[in-house]
Structure formats: structure tokens, C-alpha cells
Write the C-alpha cells for this entry.
Amino acid sequence: MAEGSNGAIAGLFMLHDDTGSDDEYDYLPIPDVEEDLGSPGATGHPPGPRRIPFNYIHKIPLPLDRSDRVCFMPGHEISVKITNIEGGDHTKILNPNLYVIEVSHGEFKWTVRRRYKHFRSLHDSLYRFKIQTTIPMPTKEARDRRKNFAKTKNLTKFPKRPEPLVRDMEQRKLLLQNYLQSVLKCPFYRHLPETLKFLEVSHLSFISGLGEKFKEGMVEKRSGGRRIALNCCSCFDCCQGGQWQERYLIVKDTYVAYLKPSDGTIRDVLLMDRDFNVKYGLISTGSNQGLLISNLSRRLLVKCWTQRKAKEWNDDIERAVKTHGEDYTKRNTFESFVPMRSNSYVNWFVDGASYMAAVADALESAREEIFITDWMLSPELHLKRPVLEGDRFRLDVILERKAKEGVKVFILVYKEMEMAIGINSFYTKQVLTGKHENIKVLRHPDGIKLWSHHEKCVVIDQRLAFLGGIDLCYGRWDTRKHRLTDLGTMTLQNIFGLQDAETLDNVLHKVINIVPRKESLQTPSEGAPSGLSLILKPVTEQSSRLEPIKEVDSTQVQVLVSNDRSSEDRASNGCYKRNKSGHRNSGRSKSDVRSENMEGYVNPCLVGDSPTSPVASPLDLLAGRESAEKSEDYTSKTKYSVFGRDAGGSSTENDAQVVAQNSSPGRTPSARAVDNRIETNLTSPATSDLSLDQGTTLQTFLRNLAERRGDIADALHSSENADSSANLQALNLHHRSNGMERQSQASPFNKQKAFIHFGRRQSYNVASDAGSVQNDRPRHLSVATDKEVGDSFTAEQLLKVFTATTSGEKTEAKPVTPPAKRKLKWKTVVDTKIMFQKQLSVDVSGDDPHRTWDTRVFHNKEHDIVDGEIDAQITTRQKSAESLKIWVGKDYVNFIFKDFVDLDHPFTDMVDRTVTPRMPWHDIGVAVFGRPARDVARHFIQRWNFTKLQKHKMETDIPMLVPKSSSRVPVPKWAINSAFCCNVQILRSACEWSAGIKLVECSIQNAYVKLIGDAKHYIYIENQFFITIMSDKTIENGLATALHNRILRAHEERTAFRVYVIMPLLPAFEGELGTSTGTAIQAVTHWNYLSISRGGNSLLERLVKAGVHDPFEYISFYGLRKHEKMIGKLMTELVYVHSKLMIVDDLNVIIGSANINDRSLLGSRDSELAVLVRDTSHVDSRMNGEPYKAGAFACSLRKSLFREHLGVEMDSQSIDVSDPVSAEFYKKIWLKQASINTAVYEKVFNCVPTDAVLTLHQLRDHDKKPKLADTDPDTAKAHLDRVKGHLVLLPLQFLLNDNLTPAAGTKEALAPTVIWT
């Protein structure tokens, strides 16, 4: 208002004073207005709940001088009470007394201190506002106010007498208290900026989730003070001493923030950390009114109005630190930024399928915020597969859907050097930010950086967090089966994993029995052709029931499968061949061309809804057990124990089972003899030629070991003639489908991805797009043959298209041109019409009774194949053949053959699927609930705010983020009943460049070293790299020293101790060994071998020098490999190990994103996240043959991995994996199977890497050798029947005699060595 108007109002005020009936008081009209606090009326209160929801913090803020801001909680009164009068300040002659006012509003209580002059200033402002309402402004709001004030009958009086003249201070205190209480009852007065300032209230004061209310108010802030320079402007501010600006300072339980008064936006957030401190006064700040707040990121200097105010700020901040912030300000274990959180809930995930499905359901449940950070993020990534509901569970579609619902999405991605890495983060940002304004994406860092943001995490509403090694990007989605091929055609045998026609009949009968229809589905008659399978054919909408399968004449069948084969071929040993010009095959794959010609031939059906399907509560959502499974006697109630065998079985019985497997029915005498010969070679005493004495070098020992592996191969070869008939007979029993031959032995962990918790088996469907969880269903409703998604789908999603071929030698089904245009030979198929429905979601209220959770997949267990409530209906949905692929477009990748290119064309293949197998991906993830999730969110917020200040400081559309309070963290009831209760601590690698903090945090390395040193029985490691060297000038991390010292101690004490290390057989860099393109592969391989067994300073060599003559008694190294048939040809490929995992003694687990190298562990290089889990719940187990109390979380994870790697079904009791230390398991099972698998793969495929190749010249000759898989496929198949699981030995002699460092003149040689380490 203009100065003239203010003067007029002041004159009216003085006139009122002069003509008042009582000179002692001023009277303020209080309109009799009943405010509807639950609706967004004139006061702007949000509708619905009586608490201000957390997402209100993301509303567009208003300037602090606006009266229409929502600050108070609807429906809650504000009460005030003056509890004390502090006097004695003789310097304040006119206002000597300080009134201590206690204010309460709902659950919030706080204290303000005011002098009489502050009351007078408030009264004058309110009276001016009342006078302004008499001005006839032409608005509806002004007219309503005038009407309300015209009807005013209530008056409240304000004492005018100056304080030095007041004798009865109790009466004065009561008058001021009543005055305040009357003012706060009036909505017109309550929301005025002057009232809010008097009460120290802002729009952030009472937001749900932000915790207790502390002090707020206006201060003057000096710019600068950053620990690191954000830009040139911040440096200039520091040099010039900074500028003083008015800001609104807010203290919360674990941070201090300030707002810009002109727009109400948060301009900076100072998190409480180990360096957090607050000081005031002349000595510390240079001013009596100064206040200095500092942490690892900034030293914030503010100036208060008085010295008393500075002390009040200091005291309130210290109170916040003592009551809530000590978890972050004290020195925590491993020097982590957060402490160990006791009684927290956590779950694990093995491989990307279950992890991504759980992430998808978690994203769907988000109501407020979603935080995502990844090294690489692919917007078009399908999180649930198979894709049965279009793009519903595609990452960008989910995020867009949640953004439209009002959820704020914040994404941090690594900004790569485009010349070196092709992850195209700019495309990621462009796509996602274009989806909705609620999606914000930041890339960091700018400029040339040698280091990367390598961490991966997803945080939902700051109460559920996922982290580990799995990026939400192409190539990471995989199942335990680790398929090599995906041509987009799925047969019934593929889906159910059947071995023969009889099993197919049994499964179909089980499906028929549970369908609530009178009609029965007939299976093929006995006279049907051998190997005949079924195909789902699109039907008309009039079809309303199941029809019997009819025998079809081969002349009347629909044309689908061609006998033609591709003329292209590929070396099947993992070494990728170039064309004659020396370049790799590139461009559009043949499978893409064929897919277009298939349109109209392959048509999946629509999945419906069933409102009557009983479903499980969301305690199934994230892996785990039921509450009923917590009973002490759970192991005696079911044969499915946490050990994969009868809980009551003794160790003697289990040992007998291990021995008995070699004499099981179906194994020929010669096969048993071979196994016995292999076992003899593996279990010979340490004094044999496989042990190291004082005069034997490590390299000689390794050569002897390679020769012994050759003896195993000879043993296999010598049994060929004796076993040929039996092997061929067994091969004939295999059911062929899509040209891929099923082994008689099940692939590891692929039939049932059940998660065993406390004695009960629970199953779920990893990709159940159209079905909800069925938990603990009756067994008569479950099909006995359980199967993993990725190679198969469950009946609840059923069944898109089943294609198959008749008996005889099969070839991979290929899309081709329709028969009218191209004349081909065709095989017989049979059409049938099957469709199942599944209920999509269920109301399973956790902490919100009105919340509906999607329970399709939110945990790490798989569904049974067929659920109990299946309603057979016929529906129609038209889709292209591309939708039948599990890995679509860029998601089908083999990194050694071709790294990512053209990511802006996500649905275009990079390789020919008919020639090149995909590279399987093995990884580990974890989900944490409650306070650990808050800790992960806190780390993300710190990084986000640092990036925002560094790159977008002045952009108001990119907000600063604030952490929720850690004092009260709700955990859903279903998580309490299903997850593991453990002690959990978040660890990280962070420093100045990555998180904006002045110190280097390497808590991940500290935890690794400590746990290794404290290990008592065993250490199990899965990691992408193993680069750690003792006393080396280049390698600084301390893991090698810790492992060396622990193994040496075990040797000196003569105690059993095992270290398992599983890592990739080769690094996943594009290129071919022995050529200029393979320099990167060779460089990383060089450092891995230099750490393990070469160079004179490696771990094994140091152990030998220290007197450990047989280091393999304590530590051994392994890789993973898989084989399959592609269009009738046997193929093999390494399984890329991307896990970052360590399990110690079945009690402690580290899961994260950090590799074993300096980049991840030193803290000053790549940024990383990890979680340390310490078990508090224990189960009965064995360790080195003795009874042992193992942790439920660690033990279940370790057993699941052992079963996968050894090819043991979840419900199989053939192998006991409960004791990882005993020689019976370590040598006769683990090492034996790894040796058999290695020998078979080398014999059949001449695969690389191998101990038989010592130089690059030998590698070229090795590639030219004929492969048994090509020359004698039947014999090769017979050998491959001996392969169980994926476990193989790491060849430590590979390229031993060559220098693998980058050659001079190459671009890799120009790069600093630290890039590789």
C-alpha cells in the first residue's frame, strides 16, 4: 500500500485510541467466522487428511509476505500459554521483560520468546489489516470480509500501558495470553505474515514426515563459505568477503535450511554430519550477533538481530543435534556417514528379473517421491517380462504414470565422456524430462573426469530403498537360468521346461483339473507324432469356452516354422569372428527382417481379470517368509528347509546322499568310473603333485593343475565308447523345442526360484504382469513342474503363442515371408485355444488402510507354474512377433562382441540373434526398509543438492531436497512379516567431487577389511573385478593384505578356512583378444591376474612364499559359463559376473555397487553405495561338520547362490550345501563339479579363456582347432550331459607368457594406469 494510505490508516488508529472508552486498552474486532478447515476455501487449506502431506513440500512456494500460504494443519487448534517472564535486562528500559510463550498445534509444541514491543507490533499490523477490509475493493473475497467484519460482535482487548508502568505482571501476562488466543482463533488473522512471523511458523513447519518443530526466523546470511568452489561466482564471493542477504532460517531435526523470502524457495540445506558444528559470539564469528553453522560442505555465517537471538539459535540447534542428529554427528562404525540400524528389515535378490519386478511394484506404490541414481539408465527398459500388457511395466511409462499422479521423480545419472563410453545419458535425460514436468533429471559431473558415479539405488517415499549392482538398463535383466538365445518364439516346452511328451501330458491334465469349466481339455492322442507340441492361435471374440485339441492333418496346418537355416555361422567358444574385411557384423540383424514378415502369424491373446482369485498379502512382495514361519520348530514341519533337505536329516545321511549320487539309476558303470577317477584327482592329499613344497614355484603348480584337468578330460574321452549307447538313448529322451535341446539334468535353479524361509516354500512369478501373488497355495492347485520365467511363463499369464516342431532333428523357429510369396518346406503344428485369467491386485493395507498394493512381483520368489484360480476364457489381442521376445532391441546384448551404440533407437538390435548369443548377466540386489532406507535417501539428497547448486543454482524449477525425519519411520506390516530382521548399515565411497564433502569416505573398504580379518570359517566373494595387491605402489586398497593375513593365520593355526572367489572369465569390454580391439580386455585381465597369481607380488605367490604350500586348500577362483543350442548348433558363452557381494561365516553380508579395485574402494574415485547386513535371527546349520548357528539372511542367500552355480533345484535334496567349509563339500562337490564343467566345456567348445593357451600366438592356433560341438554333435551332447550348473574354474595359466598391458601407441596406453585399477 502507498505511504499516503499507510498514513491514513495510522491516523484512524490514533483517532480510535483517543476516542476509546478505556485508555488502558485497544480493542480488536474478532469476526465470528466458522472456517471449514477440511476444504480449500478462502484460507487455502488442502482437502482430505488433517495433516499436511509430505508432497505439499513440492508445491510451488509462495513469497513469505503472502497471507494465502498454507502453514497450519487443518482441523487442529492453536493454543498458547505464557509460562514465564524473564526479566533483569536493564539495557531494555522500555521493554525489560521477556515473555516465554509455549505454543502447541496438534502434535507439535515449541517455544518462542517475545518482548512487549513484539506484541505491540503484531497488534498494529492486525489493526491495519482490519482497517484495510473497510476499503471497498471490487472482489468477492473483499466483500465477504467486509460482511464478516460488519457483523463482528466480539472484541479482544490489547493492553496499551508501557511496561515500566505496569505493576501487576501476572495480570499483564494473562491479558497478552488471552489476546493471542483470540487472534489465533480467527482465520483472517491467523494466516497473516505478521502472525506467522510472531509464532515462528512457515509452510515447512508442520509438514508430515519432517519431524519435530524447532526454531525458525529471519536472519542475514553471508554468501560463500563453500568447502569447495561450485563455480567462479562462489570463488568471487569468498574473495570479496561475501554479500549479506536476508534469509528465513529453519532448524529441523537432522539439518538446517534457509529460504529466500521473496519466493519462499529452499536455497540451501546443511545436513548434520560428523563435522557439523554451531558457534556464536564475537570470538567465533567476529560479531556479537554472529552465528556460524558448519558441516562437511559449507561454513554458513549468519547475523541475528541481537546477541540474545544468536544464543537462542545456538541453543536450539544444539538441542536438535542431541535429540535427533547424533546418529550423523558422531563417528560411526567403519567411518560411515550413518550408524548401524538395529532391528531393520531387508531382503535379497539374485539376478535382475526378480529385482526389477520388485522395483516395478515399488514404483507403482510410490505416493510422494521417487529417487533413482544409476551409472546407466535405459528409459525403455521393461521391468517385468514377458511383456503381456504392452508397455505398462516399461520404466519410462511407469515414471510418467506416477508423475501424472503427482509423485515427484528425481533422477541422477552419470554424465559420461562420450568419446570413451557410449551410454548416452543425454538421451536418457531428454526422454524422461519430456514425459512430464514432475520428472527431473540431472547429469553429473561436467567436464573431463576420470571417475564415474557408479552407485545404483532406487528410493521410494524415503522408506523403501533398493541398491546393489543392478542398473536399470539394458543387458541386466536375467534369470537364474541365464539363457543365451531369444529368437522371439516360445513353445509350450520352453514355457514349462518339459523333458518329454509324457510330462507335457501330465502338465496339461493338471491345467485341465483346475479350470472351473465343465468342458475338459484333451491332450494329444497316443498316435500323435512324437514330439508334437501346441500353439496358441488367435480366436474370435465369440469363443467362450475351452475346446478339445484335435488331431490335425499335416496338410491342413498353419505355416509357421521353416526348415531353412541361416548360412552364417559363429565360433561357439566365446571368441567372436570378424568378416573378411576385418570388421564386425553390424547393421540390421536378419531376425529383425524376418520379424516384419511374421506380422499376422503370431498373435498373443489377451489376459483377463478374475475378481475371485484369492491372493496373498504383500508380505510376499519383497521376498521372504510368513509370520507363521517364525516358530522355533519350523524345521520339523516341512521337508523344505533352509538347507534344501529334510530338516531332520543328519549330516551322515547327507554325506551318504552325496556319495550315492554317483550310483544313481540311469548312470552307466563307465560314467561312475569316470566320476571316481575325477574325484581321485581332485581329492588327492596335499603331499601329491598338486601341492606346493618349498622347491616348487606357483607357476609349476598351476601347470600341474592344468595337466590334472587334462587327465579329467582324458577320462571323459575314454568313456565315450562305453557310454555312447546310453548317452544316445538319454539324448533321445530329451524334448527338442525351437532347435534348443533340453538337458536331462535340470539347469541350475531354473525350475523353481523358490525362496526358502524358515521351512516353507513360497513361490512367485518373476514376470507376472497379469497375475497376483499366490502364497502357500494348496498343493493340488500347483503343477509339480515349476519353471523359471525368462525361459518360460506361468499359466496365470498364459499363454501367448506356443510354437513347436515334430520329431526328428529340430531347427530354431524363424519368422519368414508368408507362404504365398515364398515356397518353403513346413513342419506340422497343432492349434489349440487356451486362456487364463488372473486377478491383478489386492488390497493389502500395510500402514495405509486405503492403499492398494500391486502384488504381482515384489519379492524374490517365483510363482508355481499354474495358480489355483484360473478361469479359462478366450480373448483376442493382436501383437507383433517382437513382443514375444524377452530381450527386445538393445536389451539383447553381448558386450564383448559389440558394446552399446545408437541407444536413441532402443528397439533396433545391435547383433544378429541367429548368430550371436547374448551374454548372460549374474548380479545381486537388496531392498531395505525403514531407517536404512532413510539413510540411502539422505545420501541421494546430498548428491542431488550438491549437483543442483553446482549446475542449476538459480533455476527454481529444480528444487532442493530435504530428508524426512529419522525419528519415526513407518515400516509396512507385510514387510515386518516377510523380510529378514537384521542389523543394517549403509556404506559408501564419497568425496569432494562426487558428494561435495571435504573429506574422503571409504567405509565400504573399511567394512571389507574388517570383516575379512574377523572371519572365522569362510569368505564367499562375487565381484566384477579382483584388483588388489599387497605393498604395491599403484594399487592402494587393503583387501589383498587382509585376505593374505587371514589365510596365513588359518594355515598357522591348522584350521579349516575357505575363500571362494567368483568373477567373470573375461572383462565385458568390446574387442577380440590378440587384436588391436582387445586392448581394454587385456589390460583389465592383466591387473586381475597380477593380483591373483602373477608378477611376484600376487596373493597366491605371497602365500606360497609365506609357507602355504597349497594355497588352493584355502582360496580358489571360479567363473560361470552356460551352453545352449542356437538354430540346432551348440553354443557357449561366459556368464558375466557383475555382483558386488561378500558373505562371511553365514552371518555378515556386504551387497553393493563397489568392485574390488581402487576405483570403487578408495572413496576418492568412483562414487559407490553398499549395505552391510548382520544377522540377528539364526537357523541351525553346520560348519566344518559341526553344529552351527547361521544367520537367516546370509545363509539363505549363500545357499541360493550355491544351488544356482551347482545346478541344484531348490527342492532337491541330492546335494547338501549347508556346510561350505567341510572337505566333503568343498572338494567332492564344489571343486569336483567345477572341474568337470571346465573339462567338458574345453573339450566340446575349445572355449576361451583356457589354461591350454599361454600366448596370443597359441590363441590364434587354438581358435582354428575343430570343435567337437561342430564335428560330432552327438558326442558333444553326451559330454554336456555331465555339466551341472554354471560353475567353472578360472584358468590361471591363460596367456601367462604374454604381456597383456596396453601396447605403446594405443589409446589405452595413453590413459593413466588408475583408469584400469
The CA atoms of residues 449 and 698 lie 39 Å apart.
